[in-house]
Design goal:
The chain is mainly α. It is built from three helices and no strands. The protein is elongated and about 60 Å long.
Length: about 100
């Protein structure tokens, strides 16, 4: 949608780049081996929940690392929304399109 609005292509590139750090975008899906944050979180969750023992130290460190990556992705999304959304909405309205709402 934003690709057709003059001045919005930069945001599209930024959002696509962020999305590519969060989820695998390979058309082959889970079989591609392209594991991003979502896939690694799911894998860790499955490892921890399927055993009746406490998580290992390695799993705890991995959880901390993934929490940091999640926080960084959330911060980047907030930055994009805070910095770019008002300008994008102005462009959308001038183009006769409805503004985007913040989730």
């Amino acid at each position: 949608m934003l690709d057709n609005v003059p001045g919005c292509s930069g945001l599209t590139v930024d959002v696509d780049a962020l999305w590519g750090t969060i989820v695998s975008t390979d058309p082959a899906g889970v079989w591609s081996g392209d594991e991003k944050l979502r896939e690694r979180l799911g894998e860790l969750y499955a490892e921890v929940v399927n055993y009746e023992v406490q998580p290992t130290e390695t799993q705890r460190r991995q959880a901390e690392r993934l929490a940091g990556e999640s926080a960084a992705a959330a911060a980047e999304a907030e930055r994009l929304l805070g910095e770019e959304l008002p300008g994008i909405n102005a462009l959308l309205e001038r183009s006769g399109l409805p503004p985007l709402e913040r989730p």
